[in-house]
Design a protein that fits this description.
Helix content is 24%, strand content 19%. By secondary structure, the protein is of the alpha/beta class. The chain has 3 domains: 100 residues; 234 residues, Rossmann fold; 77 residues, no CATH class. The protein has a 6-stranded mixed sheet with strand order 9-10-1-13-14-15, with helices on both faces. A 4-stranded mixed sheet has the order 5-6-4-8, with helices on one face. The protein is extended, with a radius of gyration of 32 Å. InterPro entries: Tail_sheath_C, Tail_sheath_structural. It comes from Endozoicomonas montiporae. It holds the Pfam family Phage_sheath_1C. This is Tail sheath protein C-terminal domain-containing protein.
Amino acid sequence: MADYLHGVEHYYVDNDNRPIEILAASTIGLVATADDAQEALQASVTLGTGNSAVTFTAVEAGIPGNIIAVEVVKSDAASAELSVSLAGDVITVSLATDDQGDIDSTAADVATAVNNDNAVKVRVQATAGGDGSGAMGLAYLTYLSGGENEAFPLNTPVMVTSRTQIGKAGESGTLKQALGDIYTQSGAVTVVVRVAEGQNETETKANVIGSYDPETGKGTGLQTLLGAEAALGVIPRLLIATDFSHLSSVGEAMETVARDLNAIPIIDTDLAWSFTQIVTRARQLAESALLHGGVKYFDTAKKTYLLRHGSACVAGHIVRVDNEEGYWNSASNRRIYNIEGTAVPVEYVSKGPYAKTCLANQLNANNVMTIVNKQGGWYLWGNRLTNGVVMPHQRIRYIVGDSIVEAHQSYVDRNATGNYMESVKNGVNRLLRRLRTRNVISGGECWIDQELNQDAIGTGQVFWDYDLGFYDVAERLTFRQHVTDRYNESIFS
């Protein structure tokens, strides 16, 4: 009778038919240097003015200092002594009074009392204004403000979502320039990992490549990007290490990390390389977007041209195309804004007998992307990764696959009943139909391989298969001209 009920009850039943959400495709992962990036700032507040002012500054730099508050009160009794107390995060200063009950504490007295109190001095330090000889005034409860954490801690993933954060990147190193190049094209969510500038190129390269410590479970350099989802809730999908990716071993390290993230590494060539060296590098890389040519900017402050590697600019350009057209569209033959040209000349001929032999076409033929001038505008030119796969197709595979995996995390450890198997299959098919309706894919279907699953009974593993159909990217348009005299027959009819 323990489960007996005379009445009405209600249950909430999980809905297994929830649509599969597509994961974000356009987050950039950036590894860069910036030794003078903004450090942590201390919160502070100033009460009073001139010689009567006291500035309270948090001992611990960073945001935690902003929760500290200060109030200045006066005892109603005459001849009261100056006292300081701490309750939680509130510091109370009770001013001394003379035998008439008037305030008898100077700013210097208050600063000294605060700095001598064992409980308070570990939270704030006080500084009197001027010579501190003025009488301290009363003050309502006032919070310290202006405390900020270190903008870009070493080997720590930091999310950048606004160009205002560029101002915290300092002037040295590569971070400020890379973020600026991204934002010349588009607003973008960027996961930044700052690494230390070494004493020489070899040390800096080692810092960029980084390492992973299995004991602490933490990585440095490029390896830090693997922890971005756990720390920030986003997965970098376009990886760049502008001004470092052209160095030997850096590109290979980027590919390794990208493979774990299902991301696309955008790797620069050395701007001084010959065509043979560029092609050789392309064949060394497994599945990267290899970019040659760099970018040229005009610096209005320095009144000179700046030549830079182009991976940050192109990453921002890809994000802009993603936002405007969708990640399943090619970013090639879309205009790149706010650049003066390429850092090194890249010959491009759009038609005629030299179109196939121009440098831009030869780079593309060897799976190398570049930037070309078309009728006065600058355009990204090239679709293929170094393994010959069209970049949008690879990105679709990654995003669709990861979205399906993420959507089914809650399905783990359930009983593999017939309804369970069909529910998963139907959910994937609904996603594929939705993608087909949006012209992301040309088709797709999920099915259950009965024989495969029967053979796996007792192993705890179940299988679903699905396929994807991609739309071709129209890289080569061919028009065939026919000359005929049949239209002249009407003259004599």
